[in-house]
Amino acid sequence: xxxxxxxxxxxxxxxxxxxxxxxxxxxxxxxxxxxxxxxxxxxxxxxxxxxxxxxxxxxxxxxxxxxxxxxxxxxxxxxxxxxxxxxxxxxxxxxxxxxxxxxxxxxxxxxxxxxxxxxxxxxxxxxxxxxxxxxxxxxxxxxxxxxxxxxxxxxxxxxxxxxxxxxxxxxxxxxxxxxxxxxxxxxxxxxxxxxxxxxxxxxxxxxxxxxxxxxxxxxxxxxxxxxxxxxxxxxxxxxxxxxxxxxxxxxxxxxxxxxxxxxxxxxxxxxxxxxxxxxxxxxxxxxxxxxxxxxxxxxxxxxxxxxxxxxxxxxxxxxxxxxxxxxxxxxxxxxxxxx
Length: 339
What we know:
By secondary structure, the protein is mainly alpha-helical. The protein has helices at 6-17, 43-52, 55-59, 78-95, 100-109, 118-128, 137-152, 159-166, 177-200, 211-217, 221-239, 246-264, 274-289, 296-305, 307-316, 320-331.
């Protein structure tokens, strides 16, 4: 191919195959720090590899999605949620001839900032940091890839990936169509797989889902995802922006409201969450008084961003198991610790 290397061949193929609304790798706004291009991978493919191989990605396997300390191995974790978002995003991107690699890179890093114990942990840290700007997991995800990973060097990801990570939730909208896909795919994934987990936990039954939702979206997990993905591809192609059709979007909003009422705010599902604040506030108070016990990379953050933010960075990066282990080590008498 005229002496082109594999990356250049791939970039040329993107120009031929992708929609004019796609984010082509060759047109990326680049990285904060200059790096020579890889001969084999496009910039977005490199971002995928950097994300998968970093420590934060590995920690997702032991972070709560919805259910704390579930009995059984089949409940979603933050890692399995991330993988499901990635696959849904790639499917939609392919259907719209957008950049699958960019969509995947955003999806894989979008939840890096989640704390131990899921949204309960996020609420706890937000309260503890109320005088220091609060805590939001999407902002923390960006902070991790820009600053915390690789001992303070960050992953140096492309602008488009970082934008998609920050804007996957919250008021700011992504600048790319691929980022907009991940924003909706995240909701498609968690609403549907949380139904699946809630049924496994005995909190919901198929017959509990309102008939209007089952008729419009499907009666089964796979049917609902298929309906939402196909509708998003068709409607986005029709209107020229990433969207669900009005009827499906309205029904999906009702579905999310149903899940908040019956699962996300359910006393059974959330019965253990009251303990989360006690654990994280105990750790937070301990490390603000004893910052020398944190690892060197987090002690370095104190000089730039202050003690509270450094401690928050340290705690938010913990897995559920590690947070419990450290709390037990610090506050539970040795003879009473679980072996």
